[in-house]
Structure formats: structure tokens, C-alpha cells
Automatic annotation (TrEMBL):
CDD domains hit by this protein: RNase_HII_bacteria_HII_like
PROSITE patterns: RNASE_H_2
Keyword hit for Manganese: yes
Cofactor: Mn(2+); Mg(2+)
Domain RNase H type-2: 2-186
Name this protein carries in UniProt: Ribonuclease HII
Pfam families with a match to the protein in the record: RNase_HII
Known catalytic reactions: Endonucleolytic cleavage to 5'-phosphomonoester
Name of the gene: rnhB
Chief subcellular location: cytoplasm
Family according to the record: Belongs to the RNase HII family.
Cofactor binding, note field: Manganese or magnesium. Binds 1 divalent metal ion per monomer in the absence of substrate. May bind a second metal ion after substrate binding.
Length: 193
């Protein structure tokens, strides 16, 4: 019998950096799995290596540029389709955390699946750790934004840095920021006929 493949994402909401989607089929039981958001960074890092060792998995990155060009939903859907395509020989059952299956017939969906199913918890951890590691690495290139601290999310410090330095090449320009984009729109409107 083929095993369940859990799917989850990290990075749907940040102002910068990629969307990361992971699919995981566990080959052995792993103790301590849970929704990545309730685990400490240290625990996620420990579990990451165990998951890589004891599963079939596929991780997809979609850049800020792709998110701006195609939209977050399209990026999510295409990531899920890539995961299904890469893991279908090991699984015929795919479960995503959340409330939509993006029109993908084979994909089941369930809210809080990342806390209920070890496969989805594992996918949640792979996505979160992969994204966090990327943001820490890219932080060296964009020191003024301190991505290693906030991982691209819209913290007060991050928004202040955007006000001071403008957006970088890994910021999502399609994501509007209150207090920045509304001012720009207002200034533009002053110069229109």
C-alpha cells in the first residue's frame, strides 16, 4: 500500500524572500513531529535532519520575482503539482494543510493538518527550515535588512529598513506595505491629470 504524502508551505505572507513548499512521505516513525510554528528553532533543526534521513521528500522554492509575476496562489499550485509529480510513484494520497486544494482533484485538504498528521508536520518543518536557512544565507548579501532576524516578515524593523533603503531584489513588489505604498500612490496621484 502506498503511503500518505503530507504537503505544507512556509513563506506565504512575508514581504521578502521565497515561498517554499515541501512534500513528505515518512518511511519510519519520527518522534516529536508537530506544526513547525510551535517548535523551537533548535528542535526544528534537529527534526529536519531526521526527516531528510527517514523520508521521501521534495522541496520547491518560488522566488519573490515569480510570486510578483504569477501570484502567490499560482506559485503554490505549481509547487504542489511539482511535488505530486515527483512523489507519485511512492504515494497516491496527498494531503495539504489549509482550506483549499487549488483545483487539484487528487489533493485532499484539511485545516490544522500540520498539527494532526506527522507527514504534514514533517513537510511543515522541511519548508520552514529550508526557507529560514535561505533567509539567513541571503542576509549576508543584504545586511541592511537583517533578514536573519525576521526572515522577511513585515516586522517594524523590517518596514523601517524598507523606508530607509527601498526594496531589494528579493522583496515582493506586488505586496503592498501600509505607510509606504499608500504614500507613493498619493504622491503619484498629485501628478496625474
Amino acid at each position: 500500500m502506498k503511503k500518505l504524502c503530507g504537503i505544507d508551505e512556509a513563506g506565504r505572507g512575508p514581504l521578502a524572500g521565497p515561498l517554499v513548499v515541501a512534500g513528505v512521505i515518512l518511511l519510519e516513525e519520527i518522534i516529536g513531529l508537530n506544526d513547525s510554528k510551535v517548535l523551537s528553532e533548535k528542535k526544528r533543526e534537529e527534526l529536519f535532519d531526521k526527516i531528510i534521513e527517514k523520508s521521501k521528500y521534495h522541496i520547491v522554492f518560488k522566488s519573490a520575482k515569480e510570486i510578483d509575476e504569477f501570484g502567490i496562489s499560482s506559485c503554490l499550485k505549481n509547487s504542489i503539482l511539482e511535488i505530486i509529480d515527483n512523489l507519485k510513484e511512492f504515494s497516491d494520497s496527498f494531503l495539504m494543510d489549509g482550506n483549499t486544494n487549488f483545483g487539484i482533484q487528487i489533493l485532499q485538504k484539511e485545516i490544522k493538518a500540520d498539527a494532526k498528521y506527522p507527514q504534514v508536520s514533517a513537510a511543515s518543518i522541511l519548508a520552514k527550515v529550508s526557507r529560514d536557512r535561505f533567509m539567513v544565507e541571503i542576509s549576508k548579501e543584504f545586511e541592511e535588512f537583517d533578514f536573519k532576524k525576521h526572515k522577511g516578515y513585515g516586522t517594524k524593523a523590517h518596514i523601517e529598513a524598507i523606508k530607509k533603503f527601498g526594496r531589494s531584489s528579493i522583496h515582493r513588489t506586488s505586496y503592498k506595505i501600509k505607510g509606504i505604498d499608500d504614500k507613493e500612490e498619493y504622491i503619484k496621484s498629485l501628478f496625474e491629470d
